[in-house]
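User: Please predict structures.

Assistant: First:
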Amino acid sequence: MKGVDFIAHRDPSAMQNATLSPIPLLQRSFELVGPIYWPLLILASPGFILAIVTELTPLLGGILQLAYGIVAPILGGAALWLVD
C-alpha cells in the first residue's frame, strides 16, 4: 500500500485507477489492530460475563450490574486510552 500512497501524493487521479487486493489489505489491517485486540477484549469481557450471569441468576446478576455500572466508565476510559 505504500506504493499507492506514494503515487496518490504525486498524482491524486492515480487513486481512481489503483487496484486494491483484499487479502494484503486485510493482513495489514490485522497487523495494525492486532496489538490492541486482546487487551480490548479483556476490558470488554466483564460485560459479556455479566450478561451470562444475569441470565442464569437474576438476583446475583442485578447486584453485579450495579457494581459494573460503577466500574464500566473506568473500563471504557481505559479502552479509549488504549486505542488512542
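Second:
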Amino acid sequence: MNAKLTWKQRILVGFVMAGAFLLVLGSNLLDRRHFSTVQNTIESMYGDRVVVQDYIYQLRIYLHDRELEVSGDDSTVKDNESYGQITTILDDFAATDLTREEATFLKRLRRQFSSLRSYDLSMVDREDAKSKMLGHIQSTKTILDALEEIQIEESGHLIEISEKSLSVNVMLSQLEIAFLIIIGVSILVLAFQPIRTLYPIH
C-alpha cells in the first residue's frame, strides 16, 4: 500500500477539506439566521402582541367605566385623568410594529376616543344624549374586537414562522451530519487507498 500521498491525492484531500469547511461555515450562517428569526418572532410576540392585548384590556376598562358613568351607576370616574392615561396607551400602541390593517383601526380608535371625550357629561341625563353616547361606546368596542382578532391572527402567523424556521434548521442539521460522514469517508479513502486503485493505469 502506498503510505505517502501523491500530489493528486493531496489536491483531492484539499478540495474535500475545503468542501467540509464551506459546508460547516454555510450551515453555521444558516443556523444563525434561523435562530435570529425565531428570536425576533418571540420578541415580536411579546412586544407587539401580548403587550397590545394588555392595552386593549385597559381600553375596555375605560369604556366600561364610561358606561357606568353614563348610566349613573358610578360617579367616581375622573375623565381628564383617565383620558390622559388613554392617550398614553394609544401612543404606546402606535409605537408597536403595526400591520396596515392595525394602523387603520388605530386611527379610527383615536377618533372614537377623542369624540367620546367631547361628549358633555352634564347632558347624559337626557335619554337621546345617553343613547347616543352608549352607541358611541359600543362602536368603539367593535373596533377593539377587530384589533383583538388581529392580535390572534398575527400571533398565529408568528408561531408559524418560528415553527418553519426550526423545522428547516433541524433538516439542515441532519443534512450537515450526512455530508460530514460522506466527507470523512472520502478523506479516509483518499488517505489510505493505493494510488493505482484510485487512478488505474491504462
